[in-house]
Amino acid sequence: MRTHKRLFKKPCSHVKGKWERHVRRLQPNVVKIGRFVAILAVSIIAAGCPHVNSGMPPGLQMPLLQHKKPASGVYHVIGRDESLWNIAKTYGVDLQLLAEVNNLKPPYSLKPNEKVFIPGADRIRRAEQPPGPAMEEPAVEDFSGALAWPVKGKIISEFGVLGGTQFNGISIQAQESTPVKAAASGRVGYVGSIPLYGNMIILEHPNRMVTVYGHLKEIRVQNGSKVNRGDIIGTVGMSGRSGTPALYFEVRSRSKPRNPIFFLDQKS
Predict the structure, then answer these.
(1) Which end of the chain is more exposed for a tag (fewer CB within 10 A), N or C?
(2) How far apart are CA 171 and CA 67, in angstroms?
């Protein structure tokens, strides 16, 4: 019996002190691991990863979710008789991407000496005119009306490249506690909070599209619940380092950030 009592005695003070110091050293690492797991989970959903039996397509691979990142590319100065399609062919860049990243508006025509950012390009090239008779150029697609405005207000941060940084969404200024609405019908893929985005919601939609709502004050939906276009899902806030009440809104299609302005209803 004495042996058992010795086994279950309280540890010596110096042993206890070592254990407490070890736990304190581990705590910051545990917090970092927790944040990484949360961001990784959100990134998988933003890539189009569905819930089980949600009817959504299979998930895609993508880097961690980022609302901005360093831009890679060059600026091309528009020459005489150069068109967006001509420049896209010269650099081997997708026409739609070129229009969206430069926030071009219909009819997507360019003026001499205007600058356009060429994503992924490593050097400036001369846009040569194709030989032979002029051919009909492909058109930039406009998906206006595919999504409803989640909140009405002034756009204070645009999609695209600014100061060497690629911004993957837009920020819409609105009064704090203004209702935020679902831009389209779908299913709630994630609710929670991550650095920079603050309180956020990710909605999954058909055709591997997701919409992201950040800087929220309140979240009024739950994971897995279905929402209809126009349903209130939260309220405008300042969470996630937002200096003024605003909604951060992002659109991703097949894992790639897309310019929300090309999808939002321009008539409302």
Answers:
(1) N
(2) 11
State mean pLDDT over 192-205. Answer: 92
Higher model confidence: residue 70 or residue 212? 212
Look at the block and give the residue holding tokens 């990863």. 49
- Tell me whether residue 104 is in a domain: yes
Domain that holds residue 256: 12-68+137-268
Both 201 and 246 in one domain: the answer is: yes
Structure tokens belonging to residue 247: 């909604």
186 and 99 in a common domain: no
Q: Looking at the domain assignment, is residue 147 inside a domain?
A: yes
Q: How confident is the model at residue 162 (pLDDT cuts 50, 70, 90)?
A: confident
Buried b (16+ CB within 10 A) or exposed e, 45-70: bbbbbbeeeeebeeeeebeebbbeee
C-alpha distances (whole Å) from 68 to each of 119, 137, 145, 266 are 14, 32, 25, 25
Residue 159: pLDDT band (50, 70, 90) is very high
Model confidence, pTM: 0.74
Find all residues with CB under 8 Å of 58, minimum gap 6, and list them: 48, 49, 50
Instruction: Check: CB of residue 221 under 8 Å from CB of residue 213.
Output: no
Neighbours of 43 (CB within 10 A): 20
Burial of 23 (0-12, 13-18, 19+ CB in 10 A): exposed
Q: Are residues 206 and 99 in the same domain?
A: no
Write the single-letter amino acid at 111.
Answer: K
Domains: count for the chain: 2
Tens of pLDDT, residue by residue over 16-53, are 455 455 545 655 554 454 555 444 445 444 544 433 23
Q: End-to-end CA distance of the chain, in Å?
A: 82
